[in-house]
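Example 3.
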Amino acid sequence: MNPLERFYEKELPRINRFLESQAERMHVSVRPTVRHVLDSGGKRFRPVLTILMARALGYRGDDILPLACSLELLHSATLLHDDILDGARLRRGRQSAHVLFGSTHTILVGDALLALANRLVAEYGIPPLTRHLSEALLRTATGEIQEIAHLRDTDLSIATYYEIITGKTAFLIQAACRCGAVFADASPDMEEAAADYGLSLGIAFQLVDDALDYTSPASVSGKPAASDLKEGKATLPLLLFLADLDPQERRRLAEDFKMDRLTPDDLENLRDTIVSGGYADKTREAAASYLARAETALAPFPASPERDLLALALGPMLDRKK
Amino acid sequence: MNPLERFYEKELPRINRFLESQAERMHVSVRPTVRHVLDSGGKRFRPVLTILMARALGYRGDDILPLACSLELLHSATLLHDDILDGARLRRGRQSAHVLFGSTHTILVGDALLALANRLVAEYGIPPLTRHLSEALLRTATGEIQEIAHLRDTDLSIATYYEIITGKTAFLIQAACRCGAVFADASPDMEEAAADYGLSLGIAFQLVDDALDYTSPASVSGKPAASDLKEGKATLPLLLFLADLDPQERRRLAEDFKMDRLTPDDLENLRDTIVSGGYADKTREAAASYLARAETALAPFPASPERDLLALALGPMLDRKK
């Protein structure tokens, strides 16, 4: 077992117990949905980052769990709302909450989790924490709105693609890291370094996700293969592929994609072509360059076991299979 | 023009300008939906309450607009999510946002408004404000979840009905008042009095809404008559009517309502019977008793023009036609 696994083994039960205690205190009609989303096999990636970052920057207390877990609650709230958006029937191989509990109920449970997260953080009486979390949530929602606005848009520029993934994924991961630094009372420079690490890691995380969507079979990912392509999301593998087509071919495919005229067989062939053309690999290479930036961001950190763990967390990010 | 109208005439343009400035600063793809919900003819009731309450308790500054308007933004966010829930196609006589802009987009714009409200309040660096708002939002969502859980439930007790309307409506109005008091640095006793006023006013507000749903024609309210009955919401007029039926009649009606077997004619006849039986009037009487409690809560307030306006606001609440 490597040091990162040992850290997870120690912290995860505490995180899960805290989350369960919060679910327990919610209204009885909310609890099943909250437990469903919290028990869905998430890696508790955001709370772990908050804890690691705070410790790497000198925090030695034992009151960080509400802050760390508020990141998981915010993330869970966005999952509940996202799954409705995507019409996703499966999440990590299980039925989505809105299929089990109804869309109306699920929207509201998402709202309740957002409110709970804010309240947990407000209890500390440290206003910058609330400010960073609210700002991150605002940017997350804005990124998701942009993503919807560009569904089936193959004229999407790569710059806008990065703006969307930074919004929908990276800002919340950045907030997890920044809040850890704020909680450790880090210097402004260190806080910025923590934020840089989180932002690069978050972008890399989504790039790997977007590559895996093309390469990972449903049996591993728990969701249908090439679901982005099916749902009309133009992600980096498709955008890079399109950029290499001759103009006429590009126009034809773009038009078919826009009008949702591709049959399941067309989509499967397109997926094969994109993967065998190396465009998923190129997406992973882009992710690798962001992971390198994240590692660079750690350079000014004082030496500590937690700093090493933050560096150690980057490798598996690229190698993950789901 | 009475003093309350004069107050509105003075404050409303400032509130609306501030809200517009916030909409202007949001991402371009969010703005149309935000403007749609903000321009939908709301009375800015919650921000006005926050301002009046703060001034009644000694606040003399000029930096209350972000706080006051955050209440309107939270309220707007819940409207966006509610309309999706209710499948409501009309809101105050105009098409609902989710019909115009799509459900998926509308859920996320609601999230963005929740986040913006939290960020505005966090900027003050006064943690109790964030705490009270988060708590109110959590309770609002919980009240709405309970309401859905009891759709078509004519066994709903009157106590649970009050729990639902307190949740879905009164806690946010209470927070508007309490935050005004906190902002004015009021004593704990005064803060509690402000919260009592807001809670009673909020319950009365929803009781009047529930009565108007039976008595107000669509041409005035901007939504279909007896929409609660059609949507399966058992509100006080129906519950009081059911309580007066003999057990056999009650069971039959309850069963038909639960199974959604009532035809449009049945529903219209039922509405007539409930109104002519005086059950909407009884609901308004219940509202009047809560308004009296709100007035009592103002008793310990120091004499001031704003205290008088808070008292003056109660009468029109009962007399409103929509």
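Chain B touches chain A at residues 26-27, 29-30, 78, 81, 84-85, 102-105, 107-112, 114-116, 118-119, 121-127, 130-131, 133-135, 137-138, 140-142, 144-146, 148-149 (CB under 8 Å). Chain B has a mean pLDDT of 92.
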